[in-house]
Write a structure and sequence with these properties.
By secondary structure, the protein is an alpha+beta fold. It is built from two helices and five strands; from the N terminus they run αβββαββ. Strands 1-2-3-5-4 form a five-stranded antiparallel sheet, with helices on one face. The longest helix has 18 residues. The structure holds adenosine monophosphate (AMP).
């Protein structure tokens, strides 16, 4: 069986995380190496490696995740002033092969992103 990703280990409670939001289908916790004053990762509890691996069967989950972004932003008090980033694939910097959205806020964020 493939080795668990670090995010699956967080979901399973094997390693600690600073959790800011959780519901039946997803979990949000602070990034261990924050790139902005607020840097949270939102992940599905289901093990899906990349955005490319989402299928029609994940329709409801995909919508749930997007709605959860807003809930996380509200929880953190950053509504209207945050960026969501999802790296898809090692070529663009995805290191953890478990779908995740970076939620970044608290400093000016350049555009286009590097
Ligand atoms: P990505 O490069 O898009 O795959 O992002 C992975 C993110 O996971 C990076 O920003 C890491 O700092 C973060 N990360 C890795 N391990 C942990 C951990 N144990 N707790 C919180 N964040 C982590």
């Amino acid at each position: 069986m493939a080795e668990k990703t670090v995010f699956k280990r967080i979901i399973d409670g094997e390693i600690p995380a600073d959790i800011v939001y959780e519901d039946e289908h997803c979990l949000a916790f602070r990034d261990i190496n924050p790139r902005a004053p607020t840097h949270v990762l939102l992940i599905p509890k289901a093990e899906i490696p990349t955005l490319d691996d989402l299928s029609e069967a994940d329709h409801a989950l995909a919508g749930h995740l997007l709605l959860a972004v807003g809930k996380v932003a509200k929880t953190l008090g950053i509504e209207g002033a945050y960026r969501v980033v999802a790296n898809c694939g090692a070529e663009v910097g995805q290191e953890v092969m478990h779908v995740h959205f970076h939620v970044l806020a608290g400093r000016p964020l350049g555009w286009p992103p590097g």
